[in-house]
Design goal:
The protein is an alpha/beta fold. The chain folds into 3 domains: 6-78 and 143-162, Nucleotidyltransferase, domain 5; 79-141, Dna Ligase, domain 1; 166-316, 2-Layer Sandwich (Nucleotidyltransferase, domain 5), CATH 3.30.420.40. The protein has 9 helices and 14 strands. The chain has helices spanning 47-64, 94-106, 141-153, 164-179, 218-222, 233-249, 267-276, 294-297, 309-324, and strands spanning 6-11, 15-24, 27-37, 71-76, 82-89, 116-125, 131-140, 157-163, 184-189, 193-198, 206-211, 256-261, 280-284, 299-300. A 6-stranded mixed sheet has the order 11-10-9-12-13-14, sandwiched between helices. A hairpin with a 5-residue loop joins strand 6 (116-125) and strand 7 (131-140). Helix 4 (164-179) crosses helix 9 (309-324). The longest helix has 18 residues, at 47-64. It is globular, with a radius of gyration of 20 Å. This is Pilus assembly protein PilM. InterPro entries: ATPase_NBD, FtsA/MreB, PilM. It comes from Vibrio galatheae.
Length: 328
């Protein structure tokens, strides 16, 4: 049993969330989910103090999780990852491809290649068949090493460190499969940002992260947590442009929006989107996607479970990585 359990973990500004999944024949079972609050200021103290406090909290989390659930999948912010598409000679073997990617990326990277972790996935041949396209991701080794060290100190075993948006894409795929629709856009709403994602059968997935500025998030939501930053016209405009971009570039008619995230329950967010876009908006409970009656219960009447979106996506990412042996 223990070998198949994967725990997706998200460390947020206010809490640590964990979702434990287990492959069960041809489906997935939700084994457990946990949320531990973080004390205020844990991300503003000195670095070593933060490290020790987070490790202590991760140890507390480990004790709350089921036995044999130490394999974890971790997310890192999208803005800490460099992503490029490189064209490589199609005649090269796997070892030569790895060297060619490293060499080509080093010529375009603002950082020394020896300071970076690289990962890549093949996208396919070009029209002439002379080159292969590779999607390449890079992040600083120090960023990954610090994350891995914290979790190892807490007695956990990191198996995947991946972009947060990739986990959300996996969650979108699960939602589309369970609900039987592929024409809904997912928006993950946080206090300081929102992320839009959608996947396609024959194209690269669409992922867009927009950081809310102080005047649209902190100054309003901190003073009044029930006042939506979507009320700001500039934020509404950004969402509208993203929806239009998906529809035009990917030639798809978006039929609705799934809302997930820490504050997706606040009714005014949903109401603002419905007023601004001619689309149905539903709050999604990611945890219900793994129940036998998921198609009935995953559309939530309130925000129950929606805050686990990123952690659930990373758990799916970890299982996908174990099954396919790649992270991108």
């Amino acid at each position: 049993m223990g070998k198949s359990l994967v725990t997706g973990i998200e460390i947020g500004h206010h809490s640590i969330k964990a979702v434990v999944l287990k492959p069960n024949k041809r489906t997935l079972a939700l084994v457990d989910h946990q949320e531990l609050p973080l004390e205020a200021g844990i991300f503003s103290d000195n670095h070593m103090s933060n490290y020790q406090k987070i490790v202590k909290k991760l140890k507390e989390l480990r004790k709350c999780l089921p036995r044999f659930s130490r394999k974890v999948a971790l997310s890192i912010p999208d803005n800490s990852v460099i992503s490029k598409v490189l064209q490589i000679d199609s005649k090269l073997d796997s070892q030569e491809v790895e060297y060619a990617i490293s060499h080509a990326f080093s010529r375009q990277s603002p950082f020394p290649i020896e300071e970076l972790n690289l990962d890549y996935v093949e996208l396919g041949l070009d029209n002439a068949g002379e080159t292969r396209d590779f999607q390449v991701y890079a992040t600083k080794k120090a960023t990954v090493a610090e994350q891995v060290a914290m979790f190892k100190c807490a007695g956990l075993e990191p198996i995947v460190v991946d972009m947060r948006s990739h986990g959300l894409v996996n969650l979108w795929q699960r939602s589309a499969s369970v609900l039987g629709t592929s024409k809904w856009l997912m928006i993950d709403i946080e206090m300081d940002q929102f992320s839009l994602c959608m996947d396609f059968p024959d194209k690269a997935s669409f992922c867009k992260q927009i950081i809310l500025t102080n005047d649209t998030s902190e100054s309003k939501t901190h003073d009044d947590p029930f006042r939506s930053p979507f009320a700001n016209p500039s934020v509404i405009g950004k969402i509208q442009r993203c929806v239009q971009q998906v529809a035009s570039v990917h030639d798809v008619t978006i039929q609705g929006i799934w809302l997930v995230g820490n504050i997706a329950c606040i009714s005014c967010w949903q109401e603002e989107l419905c007023r601004s876009l001619p689309l149905e908006c539903q709050v999604l409970n990611p945890l219900a996607l793994f129940s036998e009656s998921a198609a009935v219960h995953c559309v939530a009447q309130n925000a129950e479970g929606s805050q686990y979106a990123s952690a659930a996506g990373m758990a799916l990412r970890g299982i996908d990585w174990l099954n396919h042996s790649y992270a991108a």
